Amino acid sequence: MNSTNITQPDETTLTLWIDGELEGEALQGVEAWALENPEIIAERDAIQAMNANIKEHVPSSIEPPYPDFFNQHILRHIGDEAATAERSQQKSGFWRWFATPAAACVMAVCFYMGTQVGEVADSAPPLTVTQVPPVYTPDGAVSANIFSSENATVIVLEGLDDIPDDLEMVGISSERGTRSSSGAVLVNTEMTF
User: Fold this and answer.
1) H/E stretch holding 170
2) Where along the chain do its domains lie?
3) For the chain, how big is the Rg over CA atoms in Å?
């Protein structure tokens, strides 16, 4: 055969050739291609040697201990599953017909209750919080007074030193106030309760 007429076989054909399962024209075509690719022949020989070594040292089948016990155990479980499936089919006959109307009724009740809750919420006055939580101050000389309005809560601390007028304060959202590189104190403006 001319090397221009020889094409590389697909993976399935190569696998069959390596396993020694090709015959006839397909075998001749792969053999001709393999003569030009000695690395494939070396790979085939290595795989066939490994397969022969495995067949020599590993038995082809091992009989499980007490095969009758295992077979009876498996057959009993299959019978139990079949009986359970049959019982569940017998019980589901009534519930299958009852479930659809019951689900429709429950959905209608939930829809009605949802419309009633919406109407009650619109007519109720807004809730206001009158109780002010206590504020802890770690310094006994500092006292805290709390003033609440509809939109804000103000905590006034008395007994602290006055803040100097030349201190620049900038509002940011952070957990703690920090001093920037310019010397300005960054103050937390988030509300925490």
Assistant:
1) strand 169-172
2) 11-57, 132-161, 164-193
3) 43
Predicted TM-score (pTM) above 0.70: no
Token pair of 15 as six digits? 């696998």
Rounded to whole angstroms, the Cα distance separating 33 from 41 reads 10
Between CA 144 and CA 132 the distance in angstroms is 12
Contact 185, 168 (CB under 8 A): yes
Are 170 and 183 contacting, i.e. CB atoms less than 8 angstroms apart? no
Secondary structure (3-state) at 153:
strand
Closest alpha carbon to 29 in 42, 48, 10:
10
CB within 8 A of 65, min separation 6: which ones?
none
Give helix 11-18 / helix 24-35 axis angle, nearest 10°: 90
**Tens-level pLDDT at each residue, the chain (193 residues):** 444 567 889 999 999 998 888 898 989 999 999 999 899 999 999 999 998 898 888 877 777 677 788 888 888 888 888 888 777 766 666 666 777 888 888 888 888 887 877 554 455 555 555 556 677 777 778 888 887 777 777 778 888 887 777 777 665 544 454 545 555 555 555 555 5
DSSP assignments along 95-152, one per residue: HHHHHHHHHHHHHHHHHHHHHHHHHHHHHSPPP---PPPP---SSTT-EEEEEE-SS-
